[in-house]
């Protein structure tokens, strides 16, 4: 079965008695991992209130095409781009006719014509309306355009008749939408990633930092999200924007980073430390800008806590992955680091090369576990991150399977 983790479902509700089931449908879509936004036609409001749908979807409902307020918040084109899939449930005979003829005279029909996301419809109507030649012709047209037709089911109808025209049950619709997507290797897991440099203040304007751009850590966070994980990214100061669908916490110093990690680590299944954390901080940073005096000055530096080692030594430690930037003897140094910090995997790379590693778009990684070793050749960081996530998922699942199959102590 596919997965709805991190998927964006635009739920379009049109006018039909089955609309009352949409509160349950929205809740089930969210329970399955989807982010749900609701668009209602005017007729739908006769059967279910926008307030109900706002409460169950967690977002204001979109109703009008030419409303300046909603257009400035999230316009119809933006909404159309936002969706990974559009589900119209219930889809009335009138709305199917609009879709088939390509009309765009309200928000929902305009969205459907502006979106490139797959479209699924769950027809619901009286059985005579369903059998109507025009309705059947419209359905054929939609099918030819690759619109997914879900149902209808056969049974007792609200109008007292019996036959085809009942909307599929919410649980069946969720399964059908879920199957439109592949399942990911990190489905349902919580992943925490640290990224970027840290900034350790010397005075009000100066500080100690390094050349880390955050590109590798951000690519790892993005790849984990694509693999179905819920990702928290703790990031030092960088100039790149937060990856899509990732909860990003911005921090400055190593101590701030440790605080943010501690706040969320309890729920993490996997911790990936990509940040280039400053090993030392200034013992007593000046609150004002230090003025030059003509004499030499001495800064007292104290060691920062090792965030990765601290996470790995927790009683219920998540699966831990560290990075190691080395200038020589990569393999030996990385293996020593693995043992010393007691982590599950280390991804090591050679630094000092101008177009690879720090502040570059490319990188190569030697991934080392206690009895695992593989080289990921130099490639674009986003591709490299996807390969690394595949390895992390394999090693994580292998470790958990081994632990689960161990005999339990009596
Ligand atoms: O010891 P070294 O700095 O080479 O270790 C690198 C690994 O440890 C990286 O994964 C880095 O994010 C992590 N680290 C940390 N806290 C520190 C120093 C390094 O989490 N204070």
Number of helices: 14
The percent range for helix content is: 25-40%
What's the structural domain tally? 2
Low-confidence regions: none
For the termini, the CA-CA separation is 36 Å
CATH superfamily of the largest domain: CoaB-like
CATH class of the largest domain: Alpha Beta
Mean pLDDT rating: 93
CATH topology descriptor of the largest domain: Rossmann fold
Please identify, by name, the CATH architecture of the largest domain.
Answer: 3-Layer(aba) Sandwich
What gyration radius follows from the Cα positions, in whole Å? Answer: 27 Å
User: Could you give a short account of the major beta sheet?
Assistant: 8 strands, mixed
User: What share of residues are in beta strands?
Assistant: 15-25%
Adjacency order of strands in the biggest sheet? 12-11-8-13-16-17-18-19
According to DSSP, the number of beta strands is: 19
Structural class: alpha/beta
Bound molecules: cytidine-5'-monophosphate
Shape: elongated
Write the layout of secondary structure elements.
Blueprint: E1 8-13, H1 22-31, E2 35-40, H2 50-57, H3 68-74, H4 76-82, E3 85-91, H5 93-101, H6 107-114, E4 119-123, H7 127-131, H8 133-144, E5 148-149, E6 153-156, E7 162-166, H9 170-178, E8 190-195, E9 200-201, E10 207-208, H10 215-226, E11 230-235, E12 247-250, H11 254-264, E13 270-273, E14 280-282, E15 301-303, H12 307-312, E16 319-326, H13 330-341, E17 345-350, E18 362-369, E19 372-380, H14 381-405
Parallel strand pairs: 1-2, 1-3, 3-4, 4-5, 8-11, 8-13, 11-12, 13-16, 16-17
Antiparallel strand pairs: 6-7, 9-10, 14-15, 17-18, 18-19
Bound molecules: cytidine-5'-monophosphate.
């Amino acid at each position: 079965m596919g997965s709805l983790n991190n998927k964006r479902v635009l739920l379009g509700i049109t006018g039909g008695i089955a609309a009352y089931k949409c509160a349950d449908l929205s809740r089930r879509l969210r329970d399955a991992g989807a982010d749900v936004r609701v668009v209602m036609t005017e007729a739908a409001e006769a059967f279910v209130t926008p307030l109900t749908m706002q409460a169950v979807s967690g977002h204001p409902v979109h109703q009008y095409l030419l409303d300046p307020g909603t257009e400035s918040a999230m316009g119809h084109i933006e909404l159309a781009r936002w969706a990974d899939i559009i589900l119209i449930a219930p889809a009335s005979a009138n709305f199917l006719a609009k879709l088939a003829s390509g009309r765009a005279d309200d928000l929902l029909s305009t969205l459907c014509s502006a979106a490139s996301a797959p479209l699924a419809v769950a027809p619901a109507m009286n059985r005579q309306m369903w059998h109507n030649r025009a309705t059947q012709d419209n359905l054929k047209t939609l099918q030819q355009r690759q619109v997914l037709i879900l149902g209808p089911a056969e049974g007792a109808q609200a109008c007292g008749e019996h036959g085809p025209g009942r909307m599929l049950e919410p649980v069946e619709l969720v399964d059908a939408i879920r199957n439109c997507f592949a399942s990911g290797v990190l489905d349902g897991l919580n992943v925490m990633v640290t990224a970027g440099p840290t900034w350790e203040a010397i005075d009000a304007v100066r500080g100690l930092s390094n050349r880390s751009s955050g590109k590798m850590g951000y690519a790892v966070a993005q790849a984990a999200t694509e693999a179905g994980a819920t990702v928290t990214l703790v990031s030092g100061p960088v100039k790149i924007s937060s990856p899509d669908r990732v909860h990003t916490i911005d921090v400055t110093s190593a101590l701030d980073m440790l605080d943010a990690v501690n706040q969320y680590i309890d729920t993490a299944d996997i911790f990936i430390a990509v940040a280039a954390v400053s090993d030392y901080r200034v013992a007593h940073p000046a609150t004002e800008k230090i003025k030059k005096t003509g004499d030499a000055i001495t800064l007292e530096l104290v060691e920062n806590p090792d965030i990765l080692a601290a996470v790995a030594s927790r009683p219920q430690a998540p699966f831990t992955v560290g990075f190691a930037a080395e200038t020589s003897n990569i393999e030996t140094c990385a293996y020593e680091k693995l043992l010393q910090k007691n982590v599950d995997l280390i991804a090591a790379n050679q630094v000092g090369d101008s177009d690879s590693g720090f502040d570059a778009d490319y990188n190569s990684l030697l991934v080392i576990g206690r009895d695992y070793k593989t080289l990921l050749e130099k490639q674009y960081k986003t591709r490299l991150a996807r390969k690394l996530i595949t390895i992390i998922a394999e090693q994580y699942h292998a470790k958990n399977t081994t632990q689960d199959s161990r005999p339990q102590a009596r």
